[in-house]
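Bench log, entry 3. Co-assembly request; chain sequences pasted below exactly as received.
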Amino acid sequence: MAGVKVVGGSASLPLARAIARELNAPYVDVGFEKHPGGFPDGERYVRLMDSVAGEHVVLVQTTHPDANMVEYLLLADAIRDGGATRLTAVIPYFGYGRQDKRFLDGEAVSAKTMAKHIAVDADELLTMTIHNPDLLASFPLPTREVSGIPALGRYLKAVDVDLLLAPDDNAVRLVKEAAAIAGKPYDSLDKTRLDSYTVTVAHKELAVRDRSVAIVDDVISTGGTIATAARELKSQGARRVLAACVHGLFVGRAAENLKACDEVASTDTVQSPYTKVSVAPEFAKALRERLA
Ligand code: R5P
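Structure output for the full assembly:
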């Protein structure tokens, strides 16, 4: 793609390179360490290794955990100082997206806080399967949500899965989309969250005996939701349980919780040992539409 260069932050290097390949655009390498091993206090450092003067730059960086947000801001600033004429922020997993409203007086609406700082240097923002897409209209820069579900749908079409399952109401729209792409039926459970670590699911008879079931969610964080749904499926005779998500954070007791599943698959919005499918085609398509 003429006139576009791609830069990747350290949280999203394989994805950024894959997007550059999809767009047939030059990739600008970044130095992340001034001295071998980086700064002893853990602060981030970035240096663009090629010129971006006069270019339209696509900056790809997931902003979770916090240090990756700092690195995003450093890169965006360096790109602007380097004379780029346009900056498109591609934030595959938007950190702080789940604090999408003021639940109690005095709270920060964290998702909007992040957007305000991104808007300082970026002309537009593309992000993926965000917790509350309605929030994007209040961001201070043009923002588009790209769905990561087609990538999961492609994966689930190719593997041993008979049925897709939404663990809660929020996930139903995602599972519907994945099921249409995978060409497989879907059902749902009804989850109640008791606290950050504990969820329950209402008992519901599911047609899962001797079948392979994929639980599909936007995010796996502690794995509590997935483990609870997986136990319900196994207790009803499911032969195999696969957990699939767009954003695999895998924090806290996630590794322990996910032992309830036979397989875990996530996309590369957050790189992890469970990353099995890339959302590069989804972002490349959205960028082509944006830039056309
Ligand atoms: C909640 O609305 C989300 O869709 C996920 O179900 C939730 O973030 C998963 O969190 P955890 O893995 O900690 O249960």
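The chain has a mean pLDDT of 96. The helical segments are 13-23, 66-81, 110-118, 149-158, 172-182, 224-235, 254-257, 280-291.
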